Amino acid sequence: MKAISMILLAIFLGKSCSNEAQNDMTNTTIQYVANTRGFFQKIIITNKKAIISRDRNAVETPQEMTISDADWKELVSDFQKINLDELATLKDPTQKRFYDGAAIANLKIHYQNKDYETVAFDHGFPPVEIEKLVNKIVSFAKEKE
């Protein structure tokens, strides 16, 4: 009887933590921006929606897409693995942006009334700690091309 109670308790706690993380994500805004002289991409993720802009002057209307449940769960999972306090100190793996070899990218996260931001890194080559999250975010823009 105790074993069954422990299993049910573990399942209940696991589900509630997962739901809590998803609820936190609905109030979170993630913004990814990559740009060079001839390229601009801005992706804003909030509450199961992605807003994609390719016009730095905001003349064209940004595209909006709904994120599928499977993609949202993956995004939440990747987000949970990130230490937000270390975001500003992450090391960029390449410096191609210094010679126009890659666009300059930046990730900003607004979570629980606090802002977190990375240092600039190369578009397509994010720091290892946020690589899955960034690649998932960028994949939404690729779907809309």
Beta percentage is 25-35%
- Helix count? 3
Percent helix, as a range, is 25-40%
Can you write the helix and strand succession as a string?
A: HEEEEHEEEH
Rg on CA atoms, Å: 18 Å
Structural class: alpha+beta
How would you characterize the largest beta sheet?
Answer: 7 strands, antiparallel
From the spread of the alpha carbons, the general shape counts as globular
On the 0 to 100 scale, the average pLDDT is 86
The total count of strands amounts to 7
- Give the termini distance in whole angstroms: 56 Å
Oligomer kind: single chain
Low-confidence stretches: 12-19
In words, what does this structure look like?
The chain is an alpha+beta fold. Helix content is 34%, strand content 26%. It contains 3 helices and 7 strands; from the N terminus they run αββββαβββα. Strands 1, 2, 3, 4, 5, 6 and 7 form a 7-stranded antiparallel β-sheet that branches. The chain is globular.
Question: What is shown here, in short?
Answer:
By secondary structure, this protein is α+β, with helices and mostly antiparallel strands. It has helices at residues 2-26, 69-80, 131-143; strands at 29-35, 40-46, 49-53, 63-66, 104-111, 114-117, 121-122.
Question: Topology, pairings included?
Answer:
Blueprint lengths: L1 H25 L2 E7 L4 E7 L2 E5 L9 E4 L2 H12 L23 E8 L2 E4 L3 E2 L8 H13 L2
Antiparallel strand pairs: 1-2, 1-5, 2-3, 3-4, 5-6, 5-7
Helix pairs in contact: 2-3
Question: Main attributes?
Answer:
globular, alpha+beta, 145 residues
